[in-house]
Amino acid sequence: MLAHWIWFAERKLTDHWKEVLLQHFSDPEDIYCAQREELCAVPEITAEVIQELENKDLQPARKIMAVCQQKDIRILTMHDVQYPEKLKNIGQPP
Predict the structure, then answer these.
(1) pLDDT category, 88, cuts 50, 70, 90?
(2) How far apart are CA 64 and CA 75, in angstroms?
(3) From CA 44, how far away is CA 57, in angstroms rounded?
(4) pLDDT tens for residues 25-76?
(5) Could you identify which of 29, 40, 43, 93 might form a hypothetical disulfide with 4, taking C-beta atoms 3.0 to 4.6 angstroms apart as the criterion?
(6) Nearest of 47, 59, 80 to residue 7 by alpha carbon
(7) CA 12 → CA 18, 52, 53, 83, distances in Å?
(8) CA–CA dist 81, 31 (Å, integer)
(9) Half-sphere exposure of residue 38, counting CA atoms within 13 Å on the CB side?
(10) Start-to-end Cα distance in the chain
(11) What does the alpha-carbon distance between residue 18 and residue 52 come to, in Å, rounded to a whole number?
(12) Which one, of 27, 33, 28, 35, lies nearest residue 8 by Cα?
């Protein structure tokens, strides 16, 4: 779900942690739904990262989606077929 991608993008995490989490859980919805025990299973995860992920408020993501819709802006995620292949293959894709 797009709201989970935006929620994840808005987390105050380093690119390193975002990459680790996506490799471990595969997508932001799984990260969002993960319980504390599941998050603790991520190798070397810190208490700060877990605390940031425990903020489950999707309202800011929904506001971003509404503004984008009003302005006719389309949001792409790395899992969208339209996402540029070259960007998928760089070290830290946007």
Answers:
(1) confident
(2) 10
(3) 25
(4) 989 999 999 999 999 999 999 999 999 999 999 999 999 999 999 999 999 9
(5) 29
(6) 59
(7) 10, 7, 9, 23
(8) 21
(9) 11
(10) 18
(11) 12
(12) 28
How long is the chain? 94
Give the amino acid at 33: C
Provide the whole-model pTM. 0.86
- Read off the pLDDT band of 93 (50, 70, 90): confident
Distance, in Å, from the CA atom of 57 to the CA atom of 59, rounded to the nearest integer, reads 6
Query: In terms of Cα–Cα distance, which of 32, 35, 85, 94 is closest to 58?
Result: 32
> DSSP assignment of 67-91, as one string?
HHHHTTPPP--TTSTTS-HHHHTSS
Amino acid, res. 28: P
Tokens of 74: 């389309």
Please check the confidence at residue 94 and state whether its pLDDT lies above 80.
no
